[in-house]
Here is the input.
Amino acid sequence: MILQVRSVGVVRCLLCSALLIGASSIPCALAQTDTPPETGLYVGAGAGIARDDGNYTFTGASVTSQDLTNPGAKIYVGYRLIRYFGVEIGYAKLGATSFEGTDTNGVPFSERFTHEAVPLSLVGFLPLGDRWELIGRLGSVINSTYNTEQSCVRRTSWGTVVQQNCPSTPIAWGLGVRYRVGQKWGVRVDYDSYALKDSASSPRAELNFFSVGADYRF
Here is the structure.
């Protein structure tokens, strides 16, 4: 995957720090039963199963086994600007996709693609009564990039026409449902979809991630 290694490490540290702060407030949060906050900072985490439905082709080769489904986990930090909208950044580790088989000459081969995502999203909240809430997310995977394999033309400042692959923005989107526990804690079930490319030469991956987790609203 095309990664800015240092920036991803900083994101991980910031997210983990925020989660530790939230975890330290568990006893007080469970004891409170007042009206939950409608704006402000929140943190959360989840774990579940990720499946890769990307476009992997091995021309002329024979694939004898493949592993497309693996455990995954995510952490995230968000800020609820108003009751219905907010912004969120996260980090997801989505397992690996692997293939084994033989190439056109009958030589055995194996391929393995690991997946990580740093999604930055706009978030919508739809309260359903006093405790239930629907959540929708739409944004981009900021640590991934890939080409559409179609031709685009651009003109340089010197007037030269250059033909190149069309770049595409990796999309992140998701849906979830939250049940409020106490004033600030909640449990969540989420579905997330990430469009990724692991490296300049690897295929485009489509990760579908189902998770169960919890969040804390400050």
In short: The radius of gyration is 21 Å. The chain is about 10% helix and 60% strand.
